[in-house]
Amino acid sequence: MIKFHNRTEAGKMLAQSLIAYANYQDLLVLALPRGGVPVAFEVAKFLNAPLDVCIVRKLGVPGNKELAMGAIAFGDIGVLNYDVINTLRIDQEIINTVASEELEELKRRDFRYRGDAPPININNKTVILIDDGIATGSTISAAITLIKQQQPTKLILAIPIAPATTLENLKLVVDEIVCLQTPEVMSAIGLWYEDFSQTTDEEVSKLLNSFKII
Fold first, then answer.
1. What is the reported pTM?
2. Which residues lie closer than 8 Å to 172 by C-beta, 6 or more apart?
3. Secondary structure of the chain: what % helix, strand, coil (to 5)?
4. Which of 127, 123, 153 lies closest to 140 in space, CA to CA?
5. CB 52 within 8 A of CB 21
6. Which residue has the higher pLDDT, 67 or 201?
7. Backbone phi, then psi, for 163, in 5-degree steps?
8. What is the DSSP pairing of strand 154-161 with strand 126-130?
9. Distance CA 100, CA 189 (A)
10. Which of 74-78, 85-89, 157-161 has the lowest mean pLDDT?
11. Distant-in-sequence, close-in-space partners of 90: CB < 8 Å, separation ≥ 6
12. What torsion do the CA atoms of 54, 55, 61, 64 make, to the nearest 10 degrees?
């Protein structure tokens, strides 16, 4: 197992593993912001495909926000991690409060990244969904649910790193998975990057503006 230097390097390496989709007709690359966007930018550039964001929000455990108890997306889509919820005995009121806060952030990011422009149409397209890594899978599961509602022709999940056990579950809900590294044990995504500094809204907007949203 090796560490990626940063998200840009991870994106370039991931792009090479997706070369079969270069110049593919009706291809769309979707990124989970914020960290997934620099990775997806390199993939979209290499494959000559349009780039857009799929905005979902992790529901972090109060006091330990990096630990996901679930995730939400537009369209009243929610995925809960009952292993975490039951282990920590998190009640419904806390879940509702966190979900309400994250819904506001969901709306803020959507306007910040897209403005008044609608999302790219996903229907009948081959979609490559990208993040900078997967831990529990809650956030990516919410994104997959959102995308599949719009009936793409094919859904490919592409990530630099994810635990093997999580990928086994995700194989059931996507058409293809491309993953560069699959450690058996994985605590935090950032440990697999030399530079895992936070991606800013400004960086996301700059990268998205490099592509024509159609």
1. 0.87
2. none
3. 40, 25, 35
4. 127
5. no
6. 201
7. -65, 145
8. parallel
9. 26
10. 74-78
11. 61, 69, 84
12. 90
163 half-sphere exposure, CB direction, 13 A CA radius: 13
Tokens (6 digits) for 131: 């993040």
Mean pLDDT of 147-152: 92
Q: Which residue has the higher pLDDT, 68 or 53?
A: 53
Instruction: List all residues 6 or more positions away from 39 whose beta carbon is below 8 Å from its beta carbon.
Output: 7, 8, 10, 11, 14, 31, 130, 131, 132, 160
User: What are the two backbone dihedrals, phi and then psi, of residue 59, each rounded to the nearest 5 degrees?
Assistant: -95, 100
Report residue 45 as tokens. 């550039």
Return the percentage of the chain with pLDDT > 90, whole number. 71
DSSP 121: P
The residue behind tokens 């024509």 is 212
DSSP state of 65: E
pLDDT of residue 98: 95
- Outline where the chain has alpha helix (H): 7-17, 36-47, 82-88, 92-114, 138-148, 164-170, 201-208
CA atoms within 13 A on the CB side of 124: 1
Lookup: tokens for 155:
């859904």
Provide the pLDDT confidence category of residue 212 given band limits of 50, 70 and 90.
Answer: low
- Measured CA to CA in angstroms, residue 21 lies from 39, 105, 106, 107 at distances of 16, 33, 30, 32
